[in-house]
């Protein structure tokens, strides 16, 4: 009877080990499936992002190179406007700067 009990105990342990192995295998398979799915989704997102960035780049290239003559003209106008502004400001504050410089140069300190 003791041999029968130990045989039943061994069979029970063997069955439990097999069940545990099945659970581990099922978990491993599920993990691999999830990883594969996550990888595929990540690749799709990367492809979408690349396509979006490429489209933005192509749009910017088309905008900047399509009207290069217009861009040059616009830049020349902006530059001329800035030069005029600087000259105006310089002529406006020039007398003040000259008087400040003369005052500091001609002031004698002991």
From TrEMBL:
It comes from the Eukaryota. Gene3D superfamilies: 1.20.5.2950. Keywords: Coiled coil, Hydrogen ion transport, Ion transport, Transport. Residues 28-59 form a coiled coil. V-ATPase is a heteromultimeric enzyme made up of two complexes: the ATP-hydrolytic V1 complex and the proton translocation V0 complex. Belongs to the V-ATPase G subunit family. This is V-type proton ATPase subunit G. It comes from Penstemon davidsonii.
């Amino acid at each position: 009877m003791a041999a029968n009990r130990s045989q039943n105990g061994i069979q029970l342990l063997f069955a439990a080990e097999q069940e545990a192995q099945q659970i581990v295998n099922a978990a491993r398979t599920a993990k691999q499936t999830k990883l594969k799915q996550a990888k595929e989704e990540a690749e799709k997102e990367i492809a979408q992002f690349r396509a979006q960035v490429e489209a933005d780049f192509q749009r910017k290239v088309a905008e900047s190179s399509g009207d290069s003559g217009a861009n040059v003209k616009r830049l020349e106008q902006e530059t001329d406007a800035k030069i005029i502004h600087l000259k105006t400001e310089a002529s406006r504050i020039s007398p003040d700067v000259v008087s400040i410089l003369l005052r500091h140069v001609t002031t004698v300190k002991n």
